[in-house]
Amino acid sequence: MSSRPLAAPNPLDWPLTHGAVLFAVMTVGIAALLGLGVPGGRRWWRRRLPGAVVAAAVLTVLLQIAVDDWWQPFPEELPIQVTAWIGVGLLALALAVARLLPPGPGRRRGRFGVVLAAVLVLLMSSDQVNGFFEQYPSGRVLLDSWFGRAHPLTVASSSDTVAAPSGRALAEVWRRPEGLPAKGTVSSAPVPGAKSGFKARDAYVYLPPAYQAEPRPLLPVLVLMAGQPGTPADWVNSGRLAELLDDFAAGHDGLAPIVLVIDQIGSAWGNPLCMDSRIAKSQTYLAEDVPDWIHTHLQTATGRGSLAIGGMSLGGTCALQLAVNAPQVYGTFLDISGQQEPTLGSHGKTVKATFGGDEAAFDAVDPMHLMARRKFPETAGAFVVGEGDRKYGPQQRRVYAAAVEAGMRATFTAMPGGHDWKAFQGGLVHNLPWLAQQMGLIR
């Protein structure tokens, strides 16, 4: 009896954040850095090498100050590990400039080698930063993030549907038909701000295998959001959304929640904070425009019990905000590594930008203040944080405690990882069964 040899893994699927590729890039990068730093010559050791080191250190410090204290494009500060690896990249550039300037070593020979060495060090630095966030776990994800395009959403309505009877889960009355596809579909679709005027980038829609059946089951919907900076494609590519949902559907006769990955920020660097304020009517977009679009363009279960909202990082913060500011819309939420309060970098800056410094107006929509004043016994929420997330771990625990005090049916889970895709993706996988139960899909 002969056996067919196993196919070799596609190099595009080799992991970039651990294993042989990371080790090889690290080894070559360190060798290149040493090659840049040790060319020899008295002038080099006395002047150029110290000058390059000082220049790289100053640029690194200035970069962190500019990003964290002046520009503040992120809700959180740059992690020290990320700053350090950016500094290594800047050092490589400084060393390359020092070597190429006349009459430095390498001027008459080896210019290509100097440039190549700098590129290799930059590649190592980028790979280490990527490894910290686990944004691109493989080359395929990286290429999909840059060049991948989903097909526009084109789904016909079904004349025959299956709904969950009162008091029962949909899975209890659903039977998988013959010939049902094993995988769901991912499409793109514009979700305009008809009422809010909010200008969002195209959303992504995951439709599970069962959505392609006839009769069609009326499935619940999870509205999912990425962080900032970010794009809805982050959940599709870095989060491997379709694979996770397909795996869930495979164990439930093709049933899984429909997932709409929405753009709640409008641009990679934007942050309207998911509230109606001077910046934008982001809450109206998420609480009215998005549900209206869902029920107009998709055949789904209806009611707050069939609609959940979730996200990671800023998206997690937004999910909690919508759960307490629009509880009549979203009955369930998933807050993965969110913040204690909406922020543009500091409390004072946030209140000034959103409500002109009016603290009372901010408190009226801030989840912690709302949960202190009001009970939410009909709301279910899951809080997730990475075990190594020292910044958001304590914040998530405080928010979780406030949710429990406010009467929510809340859960808390610490997942392996930090403030990265290992924790984000793991948090979604861990809570998919819980979400499906809360939304009436399974028992």
UniProtKB/TrEMBL annotation:
MF-aspect GO terms? hydrolase activity
Q: Which organism is it from?
A: Kitasatospora cystarginea
InterPro entries recorded: AB_hydrolase_fold, Esterase-like, Mycobacterial_A85_antigen
Alphabetized, the UniProt keywords read: Hydrolase, Membrane, Transmembrane, Transmembrane helix
In terms of Gene3D superfamilies, this protein maps to: alpha/beta hydrolase
Q: Which residues cross the membrane?
A: 20-37, 49-67, 79-101, 113-133
Give the Pfam families listed for this entry: Esterase (PF00756)
Protein name (Swiss-Prot/TrEMBL): Alpha/beta hydrolase-fold protein
